[in-house]
Amino acid sequence: MTAILDQLRTAPKSVLGKLPGVSSDNDDETRRPLPVSGMLAAAIALGVGLAVLTTLTLIGWIAAPSAAGSGALGAGLPGVFRTAAQLWLAAHHAGFAIPGGRVGLLPLGLMILPAMLLYRAGRWMARDADLRLRLPARLPKNSPREQASARRRAQWVLVVQAGVSLAAPYAMLAGLIALVARNDVTQPFIGEALLSHFVLAFLAGSLATARTIGPWRAMLRLLPERVRAVTVGTAVATLVQLAAGLALVLVAVVLNFDQVRQLSEVLAPGFVGGLLLLLLQLLYLLNGVIWASSYIAGPGFAVGADTLVAPTGVQLGTVPSLPMLGALPDSGPVPAWMMAVIALPFAAGAVAGVMVARISPSPSYEAAPLWGFFTGVCTGGVAGILAALSGGPIGGGRLAAVGPSPWEVALSVALEVGVAAGISAGVTNLLLLNKKARAPLDKAAVPVRKAGAAIAKAASRVGLAEADPRPLPGHWMDATEADTQPIPVIREDWQDEHASAAAETLAQARPRLVKEPGQQRPPRTDIVDESDDRGGHVIYVDPYAWDRD
Predict the structure, then answer these.
(1) pTM score of the predicted model
(2) Distance of alpha carbon 370 from alpha carbon 354, whole angstroms
């Protein structure tokens, strides 16, 4: 598909380059408009998908030994193409009307094929229309918020335009396919076909266009911070529940493998038929995972009217002969330890709440739990949509109700995930705010102080600086003691009286140097005792104190 699209992209340039007087280097002249690129991409995606499904249908039609005996060969290749077209519509979850009812239980795994083709077509459309050049230029750092918001809106407008350019022609082509696929037995719903094709193509085209902006992390930056936090939290909670549902399905298949094998032997499809049956079950695996997620949430699911498979109990009747349904539990009460699976949605909500609080912390303590609960509500909405897509009727009668109830699943998941996400978001936000309050106010000065301490330590080791400086003389006051006193100023009429004062002091003390026995030395007048508050050091009187009086 990529090679075909690349040839279509380079074809106009090669043709125009051969014309006289036309230069092939002019990209503006050969650039296609966005709607034209979207139409080409939609046509190629739909054509490749139909070719793949037609090939698989043809292989199954030739390999089925009962087809010739039942007269299916009489339909010929038109019948094969009509069946492939119906499968293509089913891949987009477009239902059919049959005598006595409708078919809505369609394999979600089959949706992977058109989704991948549409994503590749969207990437080609973005390159062909040079959407990267149409995107707003990157703003410099610390740009005003208004400019950043305007740039984000311009990007969103371009992404939406690209999605519509791919989805509109794709939906119109799907309407033609729905008209061609009609026969006396199955009649596709044209309205569902148009809507499902448009939605899937719009999502794939928009995602592919946004991918041209940058990596996946850059795509998330298109959303505002709060919306991005809720989106990531919803995605995390949904993925955790789906992972738990997949684990539950695998455990059920392993525990009931004998029943699954017996159902496969009863069908006796043969080698090729067995491969096709295995492929069909793999396509329905995503439906089973969503059903298991509904079971974990509490409401469970039904396999026919008046049936229920839930942690509170199992009530089954006759089920379709699909081997994977042999993994269903037997009717009756469920062991008490199975009720522990209900804790999984709360665990998913706790993880989602932590993500919401870390991506977008709230300045107030009350807002974080509300945003966590809102994330749970969004997760419940997604779970309800998935439940609606995974189930549906198979004709009329008992099989008119198959799958989980969308509104019950949505309500249960919203409450379970919302409560857990609100609590975890509130606790995480509180811890983040406390950590921020304990952090130093001037964070820019922290590296400077650390660097200065490291330099001083290194200088003391090599001898460039003294690690333990010598104490100042006793008659000089330390800076810590004189920090509130003005420094004396030397005036012009200053005279050095230090020598005369020292001589006078020595003259007064000299007669007392020799003392008689039993006679005490008179106290010195030049020493002041201040209760030994400096560790025993002697404090001398400052002779310059008169200058500060």
Answers:
(1) 0.71
(2) 13
